[in-house]
Amino acid sequence: MKNSSPDRSVRSVVPLVQADVVGLLGFLAMVIVAMSFASDRFLTTGTFVSVAFQLPELGLFTLAMLMPLISGGFNLAVTFTANIAGLAMAWVLHSQGGADAGAGAIVLGTCAALATGAAAGWIMGAIIARTGASPILVSLSMMIFLRGLGEFLTHGGDISGFPPFVLKLGNGLMLGVPVPLWIFAGCAALWHVVMTRSRLGFATRMIGSNSEATRYSGIDTRRAVTRIYMLSGLMCGVAGVVMLASFNSVRVGHGEAFLLIAVLACFLGRVDPFGGFGRVVPVVIALVILQVIASGLNLLGANQHLATALWGVFLLAVMFLRWAWARGYFQSLVRRRATATGGVTQ
Amino acid sequence: MPDLRKWGIGSIEALLILVIAAMVVGLGATTSTFLTLPNLFDLLNQSAVNIIFAAGLLVVLIAGGIDISFAVGASVVQYLSALTVMRLGGGDWALGFLVAAGFGCLLGAINATIIYHFRIVSIVVTIATFNVFFGGLMFLTGGVSIYDLPDWWMNRVSLVSFKTSSGVAELALPVAVMAVMVVATWFLLRRTTIGRQLYAMGDNPEAARRVGVNMGAMHYVAFGWLGMMAGIAGLMQAHYVQEVVPNALYGRELDVLAAVVLGGARLGGGRGTILGAILGVLLTAITANGLNLLGISPYAFKMIIGAIILIAITLSSDGLAKLVGSRFTLPRAKVSS
């Protein structure tokens, strides 16, 4: 009966759960067809293997960005939090014997990375929740701080020399599927459960809709905001471990370009830019679309700077489409669909 | 949350002045080179470009927006200006300023158009335009620098120059331009109706709209002003380093943003003063200069600036500040589930 909402605002399209997923899947199919026309080398298993290996990093950053965005905030520090988490893991591995480090050291290092990421996120969340300062500002200064810290610790260099098992973690296969993809799938499933089944997920959406009203209705918004950013940081920690494993090295600044694409994936996946609405499933499909496009651009030999500019244009194009949608340029279409599904459920 | 609003604008500036004074005294006592005219004048010369940027960014922040594309936008303006004046057979300072300000305004207007007409959050728009400007510039130029700028652009102009025991102290042209731009921005914000309207829009957009503030025009004024400042700052930066390097200003936006916020401007709008912005830039510049003179690793500099801002936010943030954009959300009927 959810569809019988009397709310006639444009956002009443949100209950059309299936429609947006189907739309995104259709877009994905379109992208794949377009790419295979553009390059005859596209429709090969090699392409899809590379997509499968590259998706997890981008995906983990997107998940890290998702919860703050739904809560009406922003986390600009995702990439550098991941770098610092990777550094923490590298430090533990090196102090336990470098390339000869055992399984215990790897577990310990992973825990250190996750703890570092979560700690960075917790500090951000606590500052945002306690002072009411703009999340953009807090995460920005956190980003400046973490980048400075990383550059101070590494002096801009690479850190490598990890045990072979770490390399396997980043580049190995399990049941024919890359290990990082398993990690990403697990994290995405976890995020889906958190967003749909937990109190925190509900609070996140409510805070994004109206923070004050949420507070007055008895939800501890301070604690919720702190936890949102802590979870975001935790996810950055996972991304840091995966990046360390797949590149077999840590460098501060690595993955910086993912920030834009992660934001893009969230908005393409129908997260409301003003907060309050957004689900994990469409965002994951949007991610696959973007990764296919990225691999396609790579295959077509597009210049790296051209690709940067194209991502920017693409982000603007997605926002234009959303605006056109909200203004009702597709309204007749929506109304027809809305009445159709409404009739079915009733 | 205690009401920190009474902790007004003036006190942030007073605090900054105190901190700067303490740093100057401390650095003067611990290093022999800090309190010399050549060093102080150099500090001013190097901060001039950032202060021009800061004056522009302040206007956008007061109006309730944010822009991170202005620094790479300035690089685009540098390149376009260099190509234009060379096409026009050399030109002079008047043409240079006109062209740089014009291209700057144009880039600002692009941002304003997208933000206002398509109702997209300014951080998202400027992240996108940042990448479009930078990626486009690097792609189209191939990363090639321009060294053969016209003579008027390249030749050093010194305003004040005299010899001291520790070297030649010199104030360069950017400082004078900076002074003019700062006064112009102060005039815009404090002595014109437009300035009042900008503050009103930043403080409460809905109230400002109902009072009759032309929101579209204000967006164009704010982002156009920042674009113009960025263009002129780009002109000055190219003059100071005597070349146009496409990625020279990459990353500068964060330094400037951090400094302006340190100076009391609030993300979300409605608050900020030009004096605070200048003091913020000077504070970061003196910190960098001092750390350098004390022989501390330059790698530590960004970390320290980041930490200072985080602490400053924690100590002095306005408890009533809302999440950016949260006041734009429409009331929605909640569906019981």
Automatic annotation (TrEMBL), chain B:
The keyword Electron transport does not apply. It is found in: Cell membrane. InterPro entries: ABC_transp_permease. It is a multi-pass membrane protein. GO terms for cellular component: plasma membrane. The chain crosses the membrane at residues 12-37, 49-73, 93-116, 123-147, 167-189, 217-236, 274-294, 300-324. Its main location: membrane. GO terms for molecular function: transmembrane transporter activity. Keywords: Cell inner membrane, Cell membrane, Membrane, Transmembrane, Transmembrane helix, Transport. CDD domains: TM_PBP1_transp_AraH_like. This is Ribose ABC transport system, permease protein RbsC.
